[in-house]
Amino acid sequence: MDEPAWLDEHELSAWQAFLATGAIINRLVEQQLKDDSGLSHSQYEVLVRLADATDGELRMTELAGAAFTSKSGLTYQVAQLEKAGLVRRRACPTDVRGVIASLTDEGWAALRAAAPGHAALVRELFVSGLSREEFAGFAAGLSALLGRLYAHVD
Amino acid sequence: MDEPAWLDEHELSAWQAFLATGAIINRLVEQQLKDDSGLSHSQYEVLVRLADATDGELRMTELAGAAFTSKSGLTYQVAQLEKAGLVRRRACPTDVRGVIASLTDEGWAALRAAAPGHAALVRELFVSGLSREEFAGFAAGLSALLGRLYAHVD
DNA sequence: AACCAGTTGTTCGAACCCGAACCAACCCCC
DNA sequence: GGGGGTTGGTTCGGGTTCGAACAACTGGTT
After folding, report:
1. What is the pLDDT of residues B35-79, one digit of tens each?
2. Mean pLDDT, rounded, of chain A
3. B1 found inside a domain
4. CATH code at A69?
5. What is the C-alpha separation between A3 and B96, in angstroms, rounded?
6. Count of domains for chain B
7. Strand order across the beta sheet in which B57-59 lies
8. Is B101 in contact with B108 (CB distance < 8 Å)?
9. Does the CB of A32 sit below 7 A from strand D?
10. Are the CB atoms for B152 and A146 separated by under 8 Å?
11. Residues near B154 by Cβ (< 8 Å), separated by ≥ 6?
12. Residue A4 counted as domain residue
């Protein structure tokens, strides 16, 4: 009974703003990366996750989890990156089924080349539009939300 | 010179959280709508924008702008919705080129049927994880960000 | 040792989405 | 009133994504 069928005014406008910002930012980031480095956003994310890992290597499943894509989607993207010479695949020594994706030297170089432009755009779109306090509050909300979501997926 | 090539710790974690929340929420919402109503999220958004407009009617271009999709993407979705009987297309009286998408009775019914489950999920994922103050701060940040983005697209 | 539930990564079919190209029609200004 | 630039919407081709099905393998249990 206390669960109305529609979102109220505040909920709705925040929700719409969330969808809109996500859509617009994603589009602009995608565009910038493609124009500037020939990488899609998902490919860039894959490179970043690999670079974050020790030795620039990660099992496929771990990578899929970190990059917010499905297993099959990752198989596709890694195949593309391998074709481009940015990523290498090798067998996992402890599990015959396993595949380890690992950054090549070209992969590191591509990431280093792409990062500054990407960082500049993210700052411009995402950071510099807010005051320090606004950004702090916003980031706190995001992080709380994310924690909640992890609990929800479990 | 004062533009570092990488995001700093705070920027990065907020940015990652933003990407992660967007990805997870979109996936869950997509899933819920599909299971519950057989609609994709974009289709649901189209229905919502039409329902918000006077008489449940909108020109294709306005609709594309409101639903954050490309013109061709919208053509596709409206075709799907028309096939499903939820939307009708008619000629625009003041512009021969124009096409007006309009909700059918079935469209209104489908939206009314889908809304409660969707609203409940959005509340659960997006609203109820934050305190009232957190949510207010978060929403303010979102809205400021969105304003900035609109200026950026112009 | 033999089973069996769960995991790993790929393949396959389908859906989706975008940008570019396109045609028709609009607008406006001379 | 008749160009020329702009806009409205669709079509087309290609790339991307997903989930389901699959086969191979693992680890624990008996």
Report:
1. 999 999 999 999 999 999 999 999 999 999 999 899 999 999 999
2. 93
3. no
4. 1.10.10.10
5. 45
6. 1
7. B57-59, B95-103, B87-92
8. no
9. no
10. no
11. none
12. no
Q: Which residues sit opposite A87 in a β-bridge?
A: A103
Looking at residue B69, what is its pLDDT? 94
Q: What is the pLDDT of residue A70?
A: 95
Q: Which amino acid is at B96?
A: V
Q: Which of A20, A24, A144 comes nearest B130 by C-beta?
A: A144
The answer to whether B137 touches A132, Cβ cutoff 8 Å, is no
Amino acid type, A142: L
Task: Give burial (CB, 10 Å; 0-12/13-18/19+) of B54.
Answer: exposed
The residue to which tokens 């309009």 are assigned: B102
Q: What is the pLDDT of residues A76-128, one digit of tens each?
A: 999 999 999 999 999 999 999 999 999 999 999 999 999 999 999 999 999 98
Q: What is the rounded average pLDDT of the residues B113-131? A: 93
The CA distance from A5 to A82, in Å, is: 48
Q: What is the DSSP string of B119-147?
A: HHHHIIIIITTS-HHHHHHHHHHHHHHHH
Single-letter amino acid, residue A120: A
3-class SS of residue A67? helix
**pLDDT at residue A4 in the model:** 78
Q: How confident is the model at residue B1, as a pLDDT?
A: 55
Output the DSSP codes for B53-93: SGGGEEEHHHHHHHHT--HHHHHHHHHHHHHTTSEEEEEET
Tell me the residue range of the domain where A19 lies: 9-153
Question: B2 lies in a domain?
Answer: no
Residues 80-139 of B with CB under 7 A from strand D: 89, 92, 95, 97-100
How many other CB atoms are found less than 10 A from the CB of residue B85?
A: 12
Q: Is residue A2 assigned to a domain?
A: no
Q: How far is A97 from chain B (nearest CA, A)?
A: 28
A109 shares contact with chain B (CB less than 8 Å) = no
